[in-house]
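Work Package 4 report. The design task specified in the project plan requires that, given a folded chain encoded as structure tokens, an amino acid be chosen for each position. We show below one input record used in the internal validation round.
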């Protein structure tokens, strides 16, 4: 690839990263939509000889770039969530009810339904399972339009009000000011789901690789129990523990170190967030856990330390800017590849799977998971019918799907790899266009509806 073209693409992405958020704020158009269309247009132009946009040919590069982008997004998501979580608190588990439902019920249902649909359409079982696992998670990168905006910290005015309210009979949580996401369970559910489901989809990607390498469905008995105990449960537990441990250690240094030079929170040095995500991922991978879930757990742990400190906002802003830049570069390249051959293997089966996933399978699985013994709407974590429908529908597919496919294909050759790339790329395109168009008007409608209910 010409180095000059790389500079041009990076420059365009940086410029758009700066201007698109404010330009598109009032319109039912997302930055992802603009970048994909722009990339597709660039791909129609004659490109320098030797420039390769074939994901099979540049699979290692695709895997590493998408991997790092997801890690950055997961750290941002962990820092952004205001809702607290304490392991020993039953009420905390209850307020996170939409998250557990989407993870434990909706995601496995989505994986199974996509895999069965693909298998029924003639796709090999291993490839069908890989497609289901890659397309099931709500993407932490492209779902930003329906996620919480960032960490809320206490203003000086609120601090003064809270000090004067110390003698009130209000609960302690009320005295701290009500976090934004406490009012918006839709955004909270989609944000927390996106933060956790990337790590929880990994066991099923591993299962697809094992299924392909071990000889098909008849081999499940030889590896199934070990996969269930270690890949599905053990590595998740190790990953969470690693993330919490690193986050706790870094928070203790940054906020409470006896040496002032190490108290980065007082200095306002936001690069700790980037150091934390890289360090956490490395530790988790070394001890055998899932790095994605570790980074999210680390972000949540950092956020829990001195929750109202402005340092959290500084760290989140740095992570958010880097995430936006990486995302736009990837979307430009993905759009270019779509008009340079990545969709060549797309057939009616891929179109059927994509349409069914976006409009039927994910919404149905999400609806069932959230309405089964639903939590009362007036309680934190409780969703009304319209909120449930929005949460179930906005399962955005994106960069995580590219990573999982690149990872699995690097572990074991899949004869259907090019078809899988075409199907995943088309699904991302469909999701970006449909969800990007509907996100702004739907979320504004729900916010107005919630405000009217609050006034009443």
């Amino acid at each position: 690839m010409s180095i000059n073209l790389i500079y041009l693409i990076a420059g365009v992405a940086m410029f758009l990263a700066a201007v698109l958020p404010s330009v598109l704020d009032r319109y039912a158009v997302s930055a992802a939509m603009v970048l994909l269309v722009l990339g597709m247009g660039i791909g129609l132009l004659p490109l320098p000889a030797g420039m390769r946009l074939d994901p099979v040919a540049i699979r290692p590069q695709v895997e590493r770039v998408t991997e790092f982008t997801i890690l950055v997004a997961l750290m941002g998501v962990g820092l952004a969530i205001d809702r607290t979580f304490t392991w020993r608190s039953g009420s905390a588990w209850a307020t996170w009810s939409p998250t557990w439902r989407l993870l434990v019920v909706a995601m496995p249902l989505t994986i199974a339904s996509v895999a069965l649909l693909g298998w029924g359409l003639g796709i090999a079982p291993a490839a069908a399972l890989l497609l289901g696992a890659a397309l099931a998670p709500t993407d932490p990168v492209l779902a930003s339009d329906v996620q919480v905006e960032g960490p809320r910290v206490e203003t000086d005015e609120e601090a003064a009000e809270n000090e004067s309210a110390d003698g009130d009979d209000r609960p302690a949580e009320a005295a701290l000011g009500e976090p934004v996401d406490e009012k918006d369970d839709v955004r909270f559910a989609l944000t927390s789901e996106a933060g956790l489901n990337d790590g929880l989809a990994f066991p099923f990607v591993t299962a697809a690789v094992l299924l392909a390498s071990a000889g098909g469905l008849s081999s499940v008995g030889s590896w199934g129990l070990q996969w269930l105990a270690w890949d599905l449960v053990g590595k998740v537990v190790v990953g969470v523990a690693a993330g919490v441990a690193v986050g706790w250690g870094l928070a203790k240094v940054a906020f409470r170190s006896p040496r002032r030079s190490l108290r980065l929170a007082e200095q306002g040095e936001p690069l700790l967030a980037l150091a934390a995500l890289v360090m956490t991922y490395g530790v988790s991978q070394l001890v055998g856990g899932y790095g994605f879930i570790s980074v999210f757990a680390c972000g949540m742990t950092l956020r829990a330390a001195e929750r109202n400190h402005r340092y959290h906002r500084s760290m989140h802003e740095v992570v958010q800017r880097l995430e936006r830049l990486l995302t736009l570069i990837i979307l430009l390249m993905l759009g270019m590849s779509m008009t340079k051959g990545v969709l060549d293997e797309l057939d009616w089966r891929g179109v059927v799977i994509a349409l069914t996933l976006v409009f039927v399978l994910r919404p149905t699985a999400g609806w069932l998971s959230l309405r089964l013994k639903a939590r009362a709407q007036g309680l934190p974590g409780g969703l009304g019918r319209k909120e449930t429908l929005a949460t179930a529908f906005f399962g955005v597919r994106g960069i995580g799907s590219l990573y999982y496919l690149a990872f699995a294909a690097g572990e074991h050759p899949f004869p259907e790899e090019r078809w899988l790339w075409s199907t995943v790329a088309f699904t991302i395109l469909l999701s970006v266009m449909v969800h990007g168009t509907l996100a702004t008007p739907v979320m504004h409608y729900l916010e107005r509806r919630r405000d009217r209910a609050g006034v009443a």
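The chain has one domain: 3-455. Validation will be extended to a larger panel in the next phase.
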